[in-house]
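Re: that backbone. Tokens:
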């Protein structure tokens, strides 16, 4: 559901610029307008140059500790963050926060903006504990300053819910999303674009849990609101089209997904131009659909174009470049083109370790995928070490009961099963299944997969009756008669 994240990023970037806005007609105000224009077309490199000039103007005109300087620092930091340059963004956000706390007091709403921005950096790097404390402090400031039903409170609730979603804390995320939605509906009416954003995010939460029947009407309502209020060719309409298409894709409803992806792509190319990072995101999504359908040639051309756009606009070491490399590698792996896949997986892993740190969940994903490549080739010793490191990172960063931990446990169990090490495989399958059922509910497709995998183990160990029970459970989940 990458599209939803990108739209939220845009909103948060603009929110970060709202505090301590310069007076109209000044040089600083003109520079800020230029920054926003460059940001909207995805020219982040030039935007950084202008943002540095704006910071210099702010410091010279107002002094180094003025709130206007904090706003300029936040602008520059946000541009670095968007490009995945977190080491550059973090100290700028911290300086902005310190200025605002000193000049405005620790409970000022602009302090909450800085806390939110810094939390975003930590969140993206998988430093969830640090992010959570900042999001909670921002929420507390806003509730105290504005009351519990203010729109800025809804934004903080949404951000905290998004963090919990990333951590697999779905039960904690849901009431926050629902409260955020209720605030927006009450304050803005049922047909406001901000309401659509909340519907989209709640739909994404249900999607992650396999609650597809609940997600679909939320996505459809969000789409209807955006088409009505923003027009049929607005970029936010494209993001909702992508999310609805992704929902259809995961359910195997490919004929319904493809036209939505294509319409979203056309909107984005018209709005941003053919070489914008948002276009790259949708190219990636459409390629994924073709990959699901074994339309490998079509998928490859889209993945390659997506990768080229990201390398050009974001730089060769951006996390989104790593994602494109990973996806292209996965396409090659599925076709048995292992020699072409391996260097892409390795480059993806190197980028993620460098940009996100060695213990980030995305690093774990790369390790898992590279392990899967070696597993497919019968290189079991290499696969095992990568699977184990991936599992350790996920347990540390996400907690022992996250669905991604269950995936790693399952993969390691599969490796042992393929080597006939059934005694080592079984407890991993059992733990994986328990996590899936607890986190996603007993009727999620991933639970069915776990049941099927365990059934395969039981058959291999002459436990046919137990295997049949599990296969019947899986068939019930998938709606298959046995």
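Recovered sequence:
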């Amino acid at each position: 559901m990458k599209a939803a994240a990108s739209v939220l990023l845009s909103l948060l970037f603009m929110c970060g610029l709202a505090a301590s806005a310069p007076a109209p007609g000044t040089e600083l105000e003109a520079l800020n307008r230029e920054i926003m224009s460059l940001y909207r077309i995805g020219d982040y490199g030039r935007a950084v140059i202008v943002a540095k000039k704006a910071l210099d103007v702010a410091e010279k005109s107002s002094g180094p500790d003025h709130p206007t300087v904090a706003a300029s620092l936040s602008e520059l930091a946000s541009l670095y963050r968007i490009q995945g340059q977190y080491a550059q963004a973090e100290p700028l956000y911290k300086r902005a926060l310190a200025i605002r706390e000193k000049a405005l007091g620790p409970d000022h709403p602009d302090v909450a903006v800085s806390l939110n921005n810094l939390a975003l950096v930590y969140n993206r790097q998988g430093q969830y504990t640090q992010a959570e404390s900042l999001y909670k402090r921002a929420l507390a400031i806003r509730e105290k300053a504005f009351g519990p039903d203010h729109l800025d409170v809804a934004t903080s609730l949404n951000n905290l819910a998004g963090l919990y979603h990333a951590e697999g804390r779905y039960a904690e995320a849901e009431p926050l999303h629902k409260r955020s939605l209720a605030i927006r509906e009450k304050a803005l009416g049922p047909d406001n674009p901000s309401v659509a954003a909340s519907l989209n995010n709640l739909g994404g939460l249900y999607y992650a849990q396999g609650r597809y029947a609940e997600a679909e009407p939320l996505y459809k309502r969000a789409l209807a609101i955006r088409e009505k209020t923003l027009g049929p060719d607005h970029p936010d309409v494209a993001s909702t089209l992508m999310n609805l298409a992704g929902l259809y894709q995961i359910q195997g409803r490919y004929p319904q997904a493809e036209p939505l992806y294509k319409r979203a792509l056309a909107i984005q190319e018209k709005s941003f131009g053919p070489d914008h990072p948002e276009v790259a995101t949708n190219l990636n999504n459409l390629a994924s659909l073709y990959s699901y359908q074994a339309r490998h040639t079509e998928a490859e051309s889209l993945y390659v174009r997506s990768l080229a756009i990201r390398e050009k606009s974001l730089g060769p070491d951006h996390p989104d470049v790593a994602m494109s490399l990973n996806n292209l590698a996965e396409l090659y792996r599925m076709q048995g083109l292992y020699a072409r896949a391996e260097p892409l997986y390795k480059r993806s892993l190197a980028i993620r370790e460098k940009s996100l740190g060695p213990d980030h969940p995305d690093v774990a994903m790369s390790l898992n995928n590279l392990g899967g490549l070696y597993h497919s080739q019968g290189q079991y010793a290499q696969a095992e070490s990568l699977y184990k490191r991936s599992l350790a990172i996920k347990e540390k960063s996400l907690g022992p009961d996250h669905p991604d931990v269950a995936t790693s446990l399952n993969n390691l169990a599969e490796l042992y099963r393929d080597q006939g090490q059934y005694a080592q495989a079984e407890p991993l399958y059992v733990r994986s299944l328990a996590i899936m059922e607890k986190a996603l509910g007993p009727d999620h497709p991933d639970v069915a997969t776990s049941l099927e995998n365990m059934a395969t183990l039981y058959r291999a160990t002459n436990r046919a009756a137990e295997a049949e029970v599990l296969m019947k459970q899986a068939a019930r989940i998938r709606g298959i008669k046995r």
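Residues 1-19 have pLDDT under 50 and may be disordered. DSSP finds 23 helices and no strands in the chain.
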